[in-house]
């Protein structure tokens, strides 16, 4: 679900993973039409890293 949000509303995806400052920067990037694609790629990457970090934490028992 977060991946879909990252593609449609890239700035909002950062708020869902607890990175509000990155979300604001992404929103500024997204305001320009040319910046939409880099913002979506950045948000999708951040969401995938968030999921990876969660899996590592669970594997280590933290």
How would you explain this protein's 3D organization?
The structure is a single chain. Helix content is 82%, strand content 0%. The longest helix has 25 residues, at 36-60. The model has no long low-confidence stretch (mean pLDDT 89). The chain has helices at residues 2-8, 10-16, 20-31, 36-60. It has one domain. The protein is mainly α. This is YqaE/Pmp3 family membrane protein. The chain crosses the membrane at residues 28-48.
Order of helices and strands: HHHH
Subunit organisation of the chains: single chain
Unreliable spans are none
Using the CA coordinates, give the radius of gyration: 12 Å
Structural class, by secondary structure, is mainly alpha
Shape: elongated
Q: N- to C-terminal separation?
A: 24 Å
Number of β-strand runs: 0
Count of spatially separate domains: 1
> What is the number of helical segments per DSSP (H or I, 4+ residues)?
4
Major sheet summary line: none
- Mean pLDDT across the residues is 89
| β-strand amount | under 5%
